[in-house]
Structure formats: C-alpha cells, structure tokens
Amino acid sequence: MKFCVINLGCKVNKVESDSLTSTLLSHGYTQSELPDAELVIVNTCTVTGEAEKKTRKVTRQALARAPQAHVVVTGCAAAINADEFTQMDKRISVIDKLQLFELLNKPNNTFLFGEGFRTRVGVKVQDGCNNACTYCIVHVARGKAKSIPAQQILDECISLAQMGVKEIVLTGINLGSYRDVTFCDGESLSLAQLLQLLLEQTKDIHLEDEPPVRFRVSSIEPKDIDDDFIELLATSQGRICRHLHLPLQSGSSKVLKEMARPYDAAYFSQLVSRLYQAVPSLSLSTDIIVGFPGETEEDFQETCAMASACQFSKIHVFPYSKREGTPAAKRLDQVDAHIKTHRAATLRNLAEKLRCEDYRKRVGGSEWVLAEERCVGTTESYHEVLLPDTIACGSLVYLPLNEVRCLDEQDA
Ligand code: SF4
Fold first, then answer.
1. Cβ 10 under 6 angstroms from ligand 1
2. pLDDT of 48-70, one tens digit each?
3. Mean pLDDT along residues 75-80
4. What is the Å distance from ligand 1's center to 140 Cα?
5. What are the pLDDT digits (tens) for 116-144?
6. Which end of the chain has a smaller Cβ tally under 10 Å, C or N?
7. Which residue, by CA, sits nearest to atom 1 of ligand 1?
8. Rounded to whole angstroms, how far apart are CA atoms 157 and 267?
9. If you take atom 2 of ligand 1, which residue's CA is the nearest one?
10. Domains of the chain from N-terminus onward
C-alpha cells in the first residue's frame, strides 16, 4: 500500500510523524506523493489559531489531491475537536496517536531527519505537561506529563550511535520535567542525570578520527534548569550542544503572571546571566507571544528590552491567537489585530538584528558543524551555514566560522 504522512507543528510531532513513516515502511508500505497515496496520515497541530487553520486546509487538500485515499487525522487538533474532521468527509477517520501506533503494531520513537542520512535524529523522551499556561491548549491535548523509561532511551541512543548518527535531539512537550522514577531504587532520574548517562554510555562509540555523537536539548522551560544541568552543559565540551531553546513568552512580569508562567522577568534575566556566565559561547533561542490579552505598549517594550538584553540568536514570534477552552480566550481585553501585527513585525525585525549579531560574534571562532545535506550544515550554536561541497553529508566537522556563511543572510 502506498502512503503519505503529512506533518504539522512542533518537533515532537515531527519525531512522531517520522516514527509513523518508519513503522509503515518496516511493514512493507511504500512512501509516495499525495496523488498516488492510498493512505494519508495528517499529524495535526493546534498550538495557535493559525496552526489549526492550516491543519484544516492541509486535510482538505489531502482529500482533494488523493481522491482514492483513506485519510487518518491524528494529533493535537484532532484530540481537541474530532468532529470537525470526521464531518469533513466520510473518507476521514480520527484516531488517537497512541492507538494509531498500536494499530500499526510497532511504537518506535526514532527517525532520521533529513533525506535518509544518518546524521540528526530526534528521540522523544517525554510527553504531556503538568503546567497550565492560560493561552495553551497543548497541555489539554497531550495530557499529564509522562516520561519514557531511561533504559529504553539509553538503548535507543546507543544503537543510533552505533549506526553512525552524529546528533541526537532529545524532544518532549515539557522536556525539563523528565523524571524516571523506576530507574534506580527509590530515586528519580532527572534530565541532567539522563544526559550524564547518555554521554558516558556513548563516549566510546565512534571511529578513531571522528568525535562521539552529540546531544541537543530541543526546548526547556526556564524553571526546569537547575545547577546540575548548567554544570553539565558547561563541562560537556559541546557533546551537549551549547544551544538552548528557552521559551520567554513575555518580558513583562505582569503578563507572565497572567499567562500563569511560573517565573517573572527578573528570574528569567538572572537565569540567562547565570547561563552565559557558566557557558560564554551559549546560543539562546526563544518563543515570544505578542498581543496577549491586556498587553500594553509598555509591556511590549519590556519584552523587546528583555529580548535585546538576552541576546537571543533566534526568536519565534507568535501573535497571540485565541484557543477555545483556555482562560485567556475568555478575556474581554483582547488586543486589536492590527496592534498584534505591528508588534509582531517590530519584534521580528529585532529578532533578525539579534540573529545577525549573534552570528557575527561567532565569526573568528570555530564550531563543530553537522553536514546535514550537500553544502548545508548546522553549527553547534544552531545556525544553518553553507559548506564547501568537499564536505561529505553526515560528517561532523570542526570549522572556522569565517570560512562558512549563514544560509539565509548575505552579510553576516
Ligand atoms: S509549559 Fe505551558 S505552554 Fe508549554 S505545554 Fe505546558 S502548559 Fe503549554
């Protein structure tokens, strides 16, 4: 049977979609383009109103472009509003993602990113979230936090390293809440302890002239970064990439409180100072929501000031969108659409300036760069760069950054 998996949304979704693909391939299914597909799986996202709109659009396109196909809709948007999809067409089934894996008979958290090169692999170590940010529907869609047993993760990462994978990205909805209470008697294993074990158990699995596999932490909540984690990051010599995605959401303590984020602006900026002090070459990316209900111009200016002070290398800017069923959606003080658009544009301009500054600061130094496809690589600091075509795909090479250029900028 020919199949096509369409992914929308976050890195966890990406890992799961890739895992669905590898499961289907392992059962003898053939991957195809939409028009030939007999089975289409749409892995949906509901993180913003825009994401949900795109999910519906993509599902309709799948129905139209694959007229013979059965379309399975799974993931967060389907969990929140199954009827919306089942009513679209009788060829659609909505299936919970866990049930889908069970149906397909083989849960497998691993897949190779890119185009089949064994270079950069996502491993899901955690799912769900116990927080309740007032704008977020993901914690409802995904349920309470749960962690994959450490032994299972160790086994998977060891076998990936043995296959020649050079970078493993640990993913989760709330990765920093990782706890394995079953690993050793009576004591729970934290994310830092899991990383320590991963470093130790993979350090000797590499060819003589190659470095061992490195690990990247996909996203971590500010409150989950503790001294153990910072120390490990500082001492791992890049085996844990010195890049963190640390969601700020707002630089205003008033707005953070209304979002039910468990920190204020002072906490965040002190954490960033501690991180830079311990790891001077650290690259920090973030998520910021603009136009949260009640956000004033002054609040927004505090966010811009915080973004500059934190020297983020990348900012994902999200204009606030209402998610039905969340406390923030019920507020009467919604911000006008044109103000949100204006603030988003202002912040994106600032983000671009900060990104260029971060890269310029690095030129003159060297970094391990993962060659992910022909002529394109990813630095430890998470900048995409153009590589000489003499570098083989899949290699991890130590390069002076003045010899490579940022992929999407002409003058860095
Ligand atoms: S930390 Fe907040 S935004 Fe992130 S998944 Fe949990 S509730 Fe949602």
1. no
2. 888 889 999 999 999 999 987 88
3. 89
4. 9
5. 345 778 899 999 999 999 999 988 888 99
6. N
7. 131
8. 34
9. 133
10. 2-104 (3.40.50.12160), 110-362 (3.80.30.20), 366-406 (no CATH)
